[in-house]
Amino acid sequence: MSQFENNGSLSRGGAAFVTTHWSVVLAAGDVASLRSNEAMEKLCCAYWYPLYAYVRRKGHSVADAEDLTQQFFAQLLENKLVGQCRREGKFRSFLLASLEHFLAKEWNRAHRQKRGGGQTFLSLDDANAEARYQREPADELTAEKIYDRRWAMMILDSAMTRLREEYAAGSKTELFRQLEGILSGEKSETPYAEIATRLGMTEGAVKVAAHRLRQRYGELVRTEVTQTVNTPNELEEEIRSLFAALRQ
Predict the structure, then answer these.
(1) Taking the alpha carbons of 18, 234, 65, 36 in that order, is the dihedral positive or negative?
(2) What are the b/e assignments for 180-190, b being 16+ CB within 10 Å?
(3) Which of the 8 DSSP states describes residue 85?
């Protein structure tokens, strides 16, 4: 269980629910829109690996999984599928339902296309995706569960990257480096007193800094999830789904 879950950093806050990447896409529907296209491309790039892992776990070869995932996103970015989506809904659920339809109904058409002969809609590192998949544990996780877990890890990684960048921008890179281990949910092997000595701070100041780091991490995780839903209720559902996926 993650540290931000323990301290309630992802509980409901008073902040207003803002316009998200997904709501921008839905608002545009199947109408060409630069803003919508940019939002969709950002979402697709983030979800490339979770869906690639899903297709691989379904039993498709490396080459076929690469082609199928690329062709699936090509249709999304051409707005052939988004216009069919209802105005409410979570992007994660929409993607998986759309992919299932694509695999069931359009495999033959996609497979007939010469490998590498179609247009590449996203600049992606296919070799890196397969290398990541080979590191997946050889367990009994279903394709759906591995998709959910990779989605959850993608959210955490994105939030961690943003947090690291924030601390770097504030000239606090060393403070972040010394404290980032607490975000994994494991007790820091280095006592706060030792960290305080290294940084020239008091132990109390280090404890406050650690609390703020955990709190900000939780806020950023919540922000990342917010970008893929359309209503506050869906946000809370996705936060619960994220915790459940991490426990698998």
Answers:
(1) negative
(2) bebbeeeebee
(3) S
Q: Comparing C-alpha atoms, which of 34, 36, 42, 33 is closest to residue 23?
A: 36
Residue 195's H or E segment, with its range, is helix 192-199
Structural domain spans, the chain: 3-13+20-247
Report in angstroms the alpha-carbon separations of 71 from 76, 80, 218.
Answer: 9, 12, 35
Dihedral over Cα of 64, 22, 231, 152: its sign: positive
Rounded to 5 degrees, what are φ and ψ at 160? -65, -40
List the structure tokens of 18.
């803002």
Give whole-number Cα distances, 155 to 10, 26, 94, 179, 185, in Å.
13, 21, 17, 20, 16
The string of pLDDT tens digits covering residues 98-154 is 899 888 876 666 555 544 444 555 555 555 766 766 666 666 678 999 999 999 999
Q: Tokens standing for 179?
A: 């404290």
How far apart are alpha carbons 35 and 100 in whole angstroms? 27
Say how far residue 108 (Cα) sits from the centre of its chain: 30
Q: Are 136 and 53 in contact (CB under 8 A)?
A: yes
pLDDT-based confidence at 42, cuts 50/70/90?
A: confident
- pTM for the model: 0.78
Q: Taking Cα atoms as reference points, which of 226, 248, 241, 25 lies closest to residue 140?
A: 248
